[in-house]
Design goal:
alpha+beta
């Protein structure tokens, strides 16, 4: 996990940044980059399901999908 990821109350806590904006989230993360991310400030939940079980860096790929595509699309 990266330095900007913490763990609390059985959830991962992470801040995602895109441009000058930062979005706090709490996450469930599983093998292969599977992820459920809740963004309270955006009133948004994102579910990513993958089959990247043998892919190195699968969690980073899911994080890039979140920042470069999903969060970028909700910016004004």
């Amino acid at each position: 996990m990266s330095d900007d990821t913490r763990y609390g109350h059985l959830w991962w806590l992470k801040t995602f940044s895109i441009g000058s904006k930062s979005y706090d989230a709490f996450l469930m993360q599983g093998a292969g980059g599977n992820k459920v991310a809740v963004f309270p400030s955006l009133d948004m939940v994102v579910v990513i399901t993958t089959t990247d079980f043998q892919v190195r860096g699968s969690h980073q790929l899911s994080d890039r999908l979140l920042t470069e595509h999903i969060l970028k699309s909700v910016e004004p």
